[in-house]
Amino acid sequence: MEVCFVYRLTNKINGKSYIGMSKNPRERFRHHCKSSYRIGRAIRKHGIEEFSYEILSCGSRNECAELERDLISYYRTNTRYGGYNIAPGGEQPPTMKGSQHPSFGKKRDPETIKKIKAKRALQVTTEETKIKHRNNMLGNKYAFRSFETDEIPRKIWISKFSVAANIMAEKYSVSEAVVKAIWSGERYQNIQNDLLFEDGVNTSCWLDPEKNLEHKKTTSESTFASNATIKDVSTLRKIWISKFKLTSEEASLLFGVRPKTVRRIWRGEYHYNQISSDSDFEDGVNTSLYLKYSKPIGPIGDIYLARSIWLDLKSLSIPSISAKYGIKVSTVANIKSGKFYKMVQDDEFFSL
User: Fold this and answer.
1) In whole angstroms, what is the distance from residue 243 CA to residue 150 CA?
2) Using one digit for the tens of pLDDT, what is the confidence trace for 263-275?
3) Residue 118 — φ and ψ, nearest 5°?
4) Cα–Cα nearest to 146, from 189, 192, 188
5) CA–CA separation, 333 vs 98, rounded Å?
6) Are 25 and 3 in contact (CB under 8 A)?
7) Higher pLDDT, 72 or 222
8) Which residues contact 212 (CB under 8 A, 6 or more apart)?
């Protein structure tokens, strides 16, 4: 059973109290001292030494929650009666509307109003701040900026299956919300009419739910060549066949793309139709099983070494293999069970 405590904090100067519950009252009190709520401000104003602390009860969470609610009501420690509790208790969230608001029915005195006006009069918005606000409104954070022509929205539209939303957003200084709204057809519907543009891209079926998925897999090469972040098909192919040879970080440095892009290519999400046909390339690499296995995760970076370990398991014991290759016994055991490098058990994969 989870044990909780109901405690009470009392201000020795004015008699105001706070009732709460916690599994760890000592840690909870530390949080109160740093809190921006009324109890925290009072502790910092008067000092910790001016508050008494007492444990009222303990029990299960449900029992303490019910007791906390009853004690707050009995002792009237909520803010409307001058106490420090802003919530009714019982783990209920604070209610700050209408009559439950601590300032409900109260009016500021004229002296306080004068102080607020004087403070606001000293607040001057500098030109630097104005420029910053203007850039936030007109730049990437402004969700639905208007374009002077349909040229940019059209480019964003035909990039739907070629480039990630964040890349297009950065390229044209808009938010990702704008890009996704154009792709979904919520905005700039006129750019979907291919007859109005001379880019030669057929997008007539891009909003059809059934044809949409099929088109995503069979994006035309002209669209790929004009919109993809990696425009060289041979580079994409090299990244694809490096799946079981390099890490995503190594491939990222080698080919000058983001690790995220590399991983998308390896998963078959990024222009897979452009690079999956081995007959279209003369590199002699058979990648027919590359999508059957995901990128291996384990302490051995070389799958061919893992394959050697797997073959040795047929004749050697796990401790012997561990000593032979200088790796942990647990790693060898995980390879044997298939938890690590499951593809090493596939003879067809290594016959490619």
Assistant:
1) 40
2) 878 777 766 556 7
3) -65, -40
4) 188
5) 65
6) no
7) 72
8) 205, 206
* 311 and 244 share one domain: no
Cβ–Cβ < 8 Å for 155, 190:
no
Q: Which domain holds residue 202?
A: 151-227
User: How many structural domains are present in the chain?
Assistant: 4
Q: Does 222 share its domain with 236?
A: no
Percent of the chain that is helix, strand, coil (3-state, to 5): 50, 10, 40
pLDDT above 90 (res 199): no
Helix ranges (DSSP H) in 139-232: 151-158, 165-171, 176-184, 209-217, 221-227
Q: Is the pLDDT of residue 53 over 70?
A: yes
In one letter, which amino acid is 101?
H
pLDDT at 222: 37
Per the document, the length of the chain is 352
Q: CA neighbours within 13 Å on the CB side: how many for 231?
A: 6
Q: What does the pLDDT read at residue 223?
A: 37
Q: Identity (one letter) of the amino acid at 280?
A: D
Sheet holding 17-22, edge to edge: 17-22, 3-11, 51-60
Question: Could you tell me the pTM of the whole model?
Answer: 0.32
CA–CA separation, 226 and 154 (whole Å)? 13
Please say whether the beta carbons of 220 and 228 come within 8 A. no
Domain stops at, among 227, 258, 280: 227
Q: Which of 162, 194, 170, 168 is nearest to 180 (CA)?
A: 168
For residues 172 and 240, state if they share a domain. Answer: no
101: nearest Cα among 117, 121, 91, 86: 86
Write down the mean pLDDT value for the chain.
76
Check residue 221 and give its pLDDT: 40
Mean pLDDT across 301-315: 80
The most distant pair of C-alpha atoms in the chain lies apart, rounded to whole Å, by 92
**Amino acid symbol at 276:** S
Please count the CA atoms within 13 angstroms of the CA of 261 that sit on its side-chain side: 22
Name the residue type at position 89. G
